[in-house]
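Friendly challenge for the regulars: who can give me the structure tokens for this chain first? No prize, just bragging rights.
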Amino acid sequence: MVLVIDAQIAGISGDMLLSSLVNMGANKSKITDGSYSVEEFLKGSKITKMNFEKTVKYGTEATHLVLETSENYHERKGIDIQECILSTSDKIGLSEKAKVFAKESIKSLLHAESNIHGEPLESVHFHEASSIDTAIDIIGSAIALDDLKLFSDEIVSTPVAVGGGTLTFSHGTVSNPASAILEIFRGSDIAICGGQAKEELTTPTGASLLVNLVDRCSEFYPTMKIKSIGYGAGSKNFDGFPNVLKIVKGEPIEEFQLDTIQVLETNLDDVSGETIGHMIDRLIANGAKDVTVTGGITKKGRPTNLVSIICDSSSTNTLINTLVSETGTLGVRVRSSSRYLVPRVIVSVPILVQGRNFTVRCKIVKHEETVKHFKVESDDIKTISDVLSLSFKTTSDLVSNEVKRRLNIK
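First reply, four minutes later:
Bragging rights claimed.
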């Protein structure tokens, strides 16, 4: 199964994720009982009321967490919240996956604050995140995800709305998104966007939960059959859109896989063939999925070479630097593009060619467990060709026939 966390309009907070999971069907009693266990490990904090209620946000019915607490403390260190979460996870018997999720989520908050303030982890003080609310959001979400058995699903996030404008809190007034949000998302594959409000849409707790939960980020929903939907409301109200996090669970349709890639392009007007050949090698070595060079004509009849590169967002900056340093180009165009992929697996196949044993790598496309198509890695064919002193074409024919025999392909 696949779960989509749709935060592209209203962002995400800890209580919104927890509420959306309850709306989808997570056991409220189990979540509430586990959340009350937090009190034992967080002295000075008490839950006076906790309930999940229905609410309507700009025409959308959703579940909202109603939480009232009594707090009697001056300030807390981040490690105090961390120890509370770890101890509570053990006491209530979370699964190992849920324990890791809870542990890594609070660690993301700690590391973000440590990096921002230049303090060691054990010295970091939480301010807004020091209340029992943070522990409840993390523990409650872990319980709910466990209850719905979502840790075994593929989890996809849309780009996340973070809002805009300014934000005033314990460290004064800053631009939104605040540094903690940027630190948490830095290094992840999750894309962020401004959104439709000049206010905070995504909280540090929500961001920490998200980066430790999702497998990938996509602008588009994967191809799937919808099975269940959850709507989790935030506390704020906005004009023009519902302050609601939407999560969607579905059964993936495996005929095609949809992902998002970056396409980098530039025109080279005065570069030698040797330079272009070396550039291709360097781009592939630095993470390009594919490189295409196409000849053309530009203004005033000048010949040109259009270089197109396909890559992941995490490789974009490295590949732009490589492209500039190798060719001297003065500009690179960048755009996001979706693509459909035929699911495939790579297997190693032992073969016998002219009395010699080899192993080749094959990309295999299956349909209902039947191999429909395969392609042998060209580097492996080249190696066998050199060993047997045969032409590449002859070797390719011999290897393909042997692979068909081994894989029982008709």
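The mean pLDDT is 90. The chain has three domains: 2-253, 258-341, 345-407. Your move, everyone else.
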